[in-house]
Amino acid sequence: MSTFSALVSFAVVAGLMTIVPGLDTALVLRAAIAGGKRHAFATALGINTGVLVWGAGAAVGVSALLTASQTAYTALRLAGAAYLVWFGARMVWRTMRRPAGTTAAGSGVTPEAAAGPNALPSAGRAWARGLLTNLLNPKIGVFYVAMLPQFIPADAPHLPMGLLLALVHNVEGMAWFTLLIFGTHLARGLLAGARLHRVIDRVTGTVLVGFGVRLALSRD
């Protein structure tokens, strides 16, 4: 297998994985609705940074530990599950405490930003949130350790090739996230109401808790 054919083949597999709705999509959409394009892109960049880390780990054999050691996989799985449950429950709890009339209609200010200076995380925190969520998802690591080695040519250096493949996934992921973010931005007038914003936060928080519980109960 040549480097070019490996990149094209992996791009097809990674592209299909990218467009399947999941935790990453939920986080980016919620960030786009709550904080606008800046926070959504910061979240997407955090997720993609995590993909690069997993790609490097799979290339050098770090993520192989997750499949070889049940203890390591279980520890990461439970840590990720606890984080998702905490994050989702905290999001739902905040909507219960948030005043209903924090944003005037047509003000151009997102409901979360209007709720107070501490309600909206900085772009740096949004990036870190995306990164941490991706790194604490062991299924991403298992995907990379199962799939990525198959696309590394025998004569190619593992680490650079692994990073290159992860970069292909990043480009596809950022293209997909960009479509979602700008699509959400176009519909922002319909999504700007404080009441609808609370509903979206509750739904997203519930989804995150559901992902966390499912991850905690998973045995594979």
TL;DR?
The chain has 11 helices and no strands. The protein is mainly α. It is globular, with a radius of gyration of 19 Å.
Chain-wise SSE layout:
Layout: H1 3-19, H2 23-35, H3 37-60, H4 64-68, H5 70-97, H6 111-114, H7 123-135, H8 138-147, H9 158-186, H10 188-191, H11 194-217
Helix pairs in contact: 1-9, 2-3, 2-7, 2-9, 2-11, 3-7, 3-8, 3-9, 5-11
Transmembrane segments: 6-29, 41-66, 72-89, 135-152, 164-187
Pfam family, one: LysE
Organism: Microtetraspora fusca
The major beta sheet can be summarized as: none
Report the order of strands and helices: HHHHHHHHHHH
Rg on CA atoms, Å: 19 Å
Determine the N-to-C terminus distance.
Answer: 30 Å
Mean pLDDT: 75
Give the structural class: mainly alpha
Number of helices: 11
Strand content: under 5%
Shape: globular
Estimate percent helicity: over 70%
Counted up, domains total 1
Low-confidence stretches: 100-119
**Structure summary, number of beta strands:** 0
